[in-house]
Amino acid sequence: MEVVLANSLKAQAESLKKQAVALEAFIPTAESIEPKVFKFTFADLSEDKRNSIVISQVPKKGKWIYSLTTDQPETIAEIFGKMSKEDKKEWKLPRYNGFSGNNSLYVGSSNSLRKRIEEHCGFGYKGTFSLKLNRFVCADNIAFELKCFEIETDNQTILQNIEDGLWRELKPMFGKPGSNNRLKRTSLTSN
Fold first, then answer.
1. Which range has the worst mean pLDDT, 3-12, 47-56, 58-67, 177-186?
2. Residues forming a β-bridge with 68
3. Which of 98, 116, 154, 172 ranks highest by number of CB atoms within 10 Å?
4. Where would I find the beta strands (DSSP E) of the chain?
């Protein structure tokens, strides 16, 4: 089979146009979504661990896009910078993007939000890529804010595009855009 680059590019351009149309159609829905906001300090998590009042209030199920910010991003960057490469690798921490001058730590999505936040706080399975804040954040006065947006669509491509757009807007210190093959890609014209 002969591969014609121009035909491949035309097909990709058509696919992107369809995605753009579907995303434009979703904007009014997105404008009406109010985030659930949870504020906590590391001290709130360190005493009660997984059973903390904060974590117990985070919704368990649904399709969620979330962002995690802090009031002391410079401190987090400094602490992370002092960690050994071996610890970073062993703990399966997400990619470090550097400190970009804002307070965003991570942007992600989950169908099991509470479990995912437990992982980011450091109470999940060791082999899961997550922030594991209790592994390297020791200052009890560092404040965090978790914003969670419930997205009511079954269209995984729309969900991924929303997450990627939020990631590009917030430029978080950790993680990367893209699905890591977590989400099954579907046609934007379905749902």
1. 177-186
2. 106, 146
3. 172
4. 36-41, 61-70, 104-112, 143-150
